[in-house]
Amino acid sequence: MWWNRKRTESKAATSEAEAAALGADVPGGEHRNAFILIGLGGAAVAAFGIAALAGIIAPVFFALVLTICVHPLRVWLEDRGVPRGIATGSVITAVTLLLLTFGYAVMVAFGQFANLLPEFADEIKAWGADVAQWLVSIGINADEVHALFTDFDPGTVIGFVGGFVGGIAGWTTTLVVLFTMLLLMAMDAGYLPTLLRQLRPHRPLVVTSLVNYGSNVRRYMIVTTVLGVAQGVVNWIALTIIGVPGAFIWGLLAFLCSFIPNIGYFIAIIPPIIFAALVGGWPMVIAVIVVYGLINAVIQSVIQPRVVGNAVALSQTITFFSVLFWAVIIGPIGAILAIPLTLLVRMVLVDSNPNSFWIRPMLGELDETKAIMAEADAEAKAARKAKHAPLAPSVE
């Protein structure tokens, strides 16, 4: 029968594929699975080691990303005859000013938040009571809901956030490591072009991978920063016009969350929705959702992919997983630096290893895959047209 014939053909094709795979010269030979397990074990040990040293690795890598982003400024100054020492000082000064400006904005936003939350304490308690009633109506245990909302005090949120921000500001070791690494990396970056020229004859693929990594990280971070600033400013203005309290705070939050792929938008929209519900009810909530949706769709879904291009050749699944993974390994800053960290792992394991090029499409480098799919779709469309086309009349 026809189904038996198809099953036989499928089994034959599978057998041919298995035979071809067995006959192929696979690195590692019969010990390939053992090498995979050893690699996974090494990755697990490395992950635990990075997590144990997160307090040092996070600021060091953050300093590396900042150094990569401002490197074109050094090149521009040196090309115009500026001495290397002055160029280094200019780079360090530029990064320091950026960090101080951002720190000042965070402190201003926290001050506004500290004044805003007690002002709406009664409304937040009433809203919590409504939420509790709704949870009971859908079958949640009333005692658990009552215990959850009875002792809630909006002032405790201020204490939590204040302790968190104060902890960040009090991390003297982190700040010392960050600024020290910025200084040293900025000084060493002056030798980098010559070092790469020395290394290229011996390891051309490694040099190419390093250069591409720096270019891709720089393009991603600069574009994301510029678009994040634009997104935060537009959200700030829009929320001010709508009348949502704390518009500057939520604009700054939108800027920070623009560095977190996939889930940053949902984190940034929750606080303005809550305060919009407290002030204006459902009409204002809908207005906030529409505004945030339009801004996110235009900036992150239309503009950013066109500008970034293939700098981040990672699939959506890997991107989302990388955010969760690095956030667990090195903390909240891991979610912000997830893309540069994942690109670094890809550069070390795949891009600099010619035996691993075959895995690139599975990671997200889909240009060739899309071309093959487009060709297959065109062939299938032509076949359907030919199948449904009327037969030409026979000529006697």
UniProtKB/TrEMBL annotation:
The lineage is:
Bacteria, Bacillati, Actinomycetota, Actinomycetes, Micrococcales
Indicate the transmembrane segments per the record.
34-54, 60-77, 89-110, 157-187, 220-242, 248-270, 282-303, 323-345
What GO biological process terms are annotated to this protein in UniProt? transmembrane transport
Q: Which domain of life is it from?
A: Bacteria
Q: Is Chloroplast tagged as a keyword?
A: no
Q: Name one Pfam family in it.
A: AI-2E_transport
UniProt keywords, alphabetically: Membrane, Transmembrane, Transmembrane helix
Family label:
Belongs to the autoinducer-2 exporter (AI-2E) (TC 2.A.86) family.
Q: Kindly provide the name given to this protein in its UniProt entry.
A: Putative PurR-regulated permease PerM
User: Per the record, what is one GO cellular component?
Assistant: membrane
Membrane topology recorded in Swiss-Prot or TrEMBL: Multi-pass membrane protein
